[in-house]
Design a protein that fits this description.
Rossmann fold; PES; 3 domains; alpha/beta; 13 strands; about 40% helix; four-stranded parallel β-sheet
């Protein structure tokens, strides 16, 4: 529960919960599963104490039902879609870090679904990775796929819990414990390397995020028609990819635009930044051509992206311009208009049309 003294809250690193949080936790599937498993473990220990080892082996803990957790958190599909970008970013990062073997297949299934249903709207090569946007039921879903980096494995580690040193304090009549005088401190050998990034929270959240994406795919496969909106910008064009670092990303975009990926010399266009051997009659292009074609609705010319030429500036498609329509304001209640006005006042680039 929250401490009564605010200064005490500011001086501690512990977590505190509100009463409303406690009520949610108390009735959650997680707590019910934990209570059930505790009873089972107690029964198992009793059997072991009575040397009934065969019966003890038959007692298994109940697994957490992540499907129920996802349903408890998101009451509707639109709400689940709102958070999908965060889950996708975490899953893509987990894939780069090899935290879970199943993540590769889940992401590949999702990418195939995006290709077959023409969902991909934008893609942008930033300094950190490639940002993507899909649009489902007028809900924008944006996520980041980090670039592969061989040094990531050297700087991250899933840290484990380690005991905190017990600190003796002088008793005080008013506060019972005072930090004014330390009477001694038990030494502990640190378990975790302080020079490495802690990936524990990411690893803990993976099961939930995997089921989050799985459930959304299950729902969308029933709602959307395959090939209904697929673009034809690259229809009839064959591509060979020489850029290995972002090969999967290029395949996603090219196939989303109805292009074909080939591994032999039957290609029309070769995508890469450094080409060693050129074949006469073939076109060699910078990877930016693929993403700019996606973002510009096909209004690009491959001649501008040939290897060796100065290519156009790669402009982010995610620049936002906010508009507030007065006709929309007239349909809102006074409370909603005031809330919207607060938002408008907070952003200088918002203007009325």
């Amino acid at each position: 529960m929250s401490p009564k003294r605010k200064e005490k809250y500011d001086l501690t690193d512990d977590f505190y919960f509100k009463i409303s949080d406690y009520e949610k936790i108390k009735h959650s599937h997680v707590i019910k599963t934990i209570k059930y498993n505790n009873k089972r473990l107690k029964k198992k220990q009793d059997l072991i104490d009575n040397r009934l080892y065969d019966k003890a082996e038959d007692i298994k803990p109940r697994e957490f039902k992540y499907v129920d957790l996802v349903k408890d958190r998101y009451s509707s599909l639109p709400k689940a879609l709102d958070d999908l970008g965060d889950s996708l970013t975490s899953l893509c990062l987990s894939k780069r870090l090899n935290l879970d073997e199943e993540v590769d297949q889940i992401i590949n299934d999702f990418y195939s679904f995006c290709i077959n249903h023409g969902l991909l709207v934008h893609g942008f090569m930033s300094t950190k990775g490639i940002y993507y946007e899909i649009n489902i039921e007028n809900i924008r879903i944006i996520w980041l796929n980090p670039y592969p980096n061989t040094t990531l494995q050297e700087i991250i580690k899933i840290k484990i819990d380690e005991p905190k040193p017990f600190k003796w304090s002088k008793l005080n009549f008013l506060h019972f414990a005072s930090d004014d005088e330390d009477l001694g401190e038990e030494e502990f050998e640190p378990v975790n390397d302080p020079n490495k990034l802690d990936m524990s929270l990411l690893s803990y959240s993976l099961p939930f995020q995997k089921f989050h994406l799985k459930l959304i795919l299950f729902k969308l496969k029933k709602l959307l028609v395959e090939h209904e909106r697929q673009r034809k910008d690259f229809l009839g064009m064959k591509f060979r990819i020489e850029n290995k670092n972002i090969r999967e990303d290029l395949i996603l975009v090219i196939k989303s635009l109805s292009g074909e990926i080939v591994e032999n010399d039957s290609f029309d266009f070769c995508i890469g930044e450094r080409i060693e051997n050129y074949t006469e009659g073939k076109v060699y292009l910078h990877p930016q051509y693929v993403f700019d074609t996606l973002n510009s609705q096909g209004k690009t010319f491959f001649e501008d992206y040939k290897i060796g030429k100065k290519i156009p500036k790669h402009i982010s498609p995610f620049a936002l311009t906010n508009f507030v329509n007065p006709d929309v304001l007239s349909t809102l209640s006074k409370t909603k208009r005031n809330r919207l006005q607060d938002i408008v006042d907070g952003y200088k680039d918002v203007h009325y049309q």
